[in-house]
Amino acid sequence: MGVIETGRGNATVMNTYIKKNGCHLDSISGYATVMNTYMENKKIIGSQDVKTYRLQMVQDALKYGIKPCARQYQTTVKTVRKWVKRYQQYKEDGLNDLSRKKTHCLIKIDKETELQIIKCRKAHPGWGARRIKEVLELNFSHVSIHRVIKDAGLILPKRKKYKKRKDMQEVRKQKKVFSRFQIDIKYLTDIPEFEIWRWEHHFPLYLISARDYKTGAIYLAYSYEKSSTATALFIDYLLSSLQNYGINPQTIIIQTDNGKEFINPTDRKVTLFEKIVKEKYQATHFLIPYRRPTWNSDVESFHNLIEEEFFILRKTK
């Protein structure tokens, strides 16, 4: 709540001012009070009428004084004096907000360095401002270097998910059918809705899946054990079936993780699965990096789908 001191010789003038601006006179303290502050009124009236509001404040300040006006508008004397000064210099144009954009830079990158940054960025599109600063050993901030890259139009737009999905579809189209399979094992013992039926009817504990990278075709097999013997039998059936249909196994890539059911990570002994793939059919066995399950995302997504839409919803009789 703001106040305006009535003064000693200007009581009539101030009473007129009080009635005009809708405030009331405190009979005890001799001050006129107003409900809203200057900043509150700015928010209420909106950006379009701020200039008009400031003009009214300046006119009141010139008429009744800066300090009484500051009390009336619930702002500081410095603020009122600032707008009065701008109004006296530039009239109504001085009541607009000034641009906060920087007009000069104390440490500006010279033209030769800018060309060097642009050349480095074009040679290495994946390098950011921090990497370029480190490689070129520049004393400028990474923000300034990023500005140079941006002004040169070398900032690549961020790819959208749908665009990446479309790009992957184009990559898949270039692959041959049955040229790459992702193979993995799914536990059937960690599905609560299915466990009681599996236990009562002695169903298998594991699901072995192979998914073609291009078409998404799925080949399944159930097993009671998680071993290289079980996966070897599965891959033997799969490759022999493809060979019977005229597909050369030597052109096929078998992609798996580093589990014991596929390889022997502790020593150099060749597992039965590797013998079937490499020696019998002379196919290529590709191992994904450790702790990178997303490399087998196609077959992993199938395992999630079959769990949600088959093992959970459909109960075996």
UniProtKB/TrEMBL annotation:
Chain ranges of the Integrase catalytic domain: 172-317
InterPro entries: Homeodomain-like_sf, Integrase_cat-core, RNaseH-like_sf, RNaseH_sf
Domain of life the protein comes from: Bacteria
Pfam families named in the record: HTH_32
SUPFAM superfamilies referenced in this protein's UniProt entry, alphabetically: Homeodomain-like, Ribonuclease H-like
GO molecular function annotation: nucleic acid binding
Protein name, per record: Integrase catalytic domain-containing protein
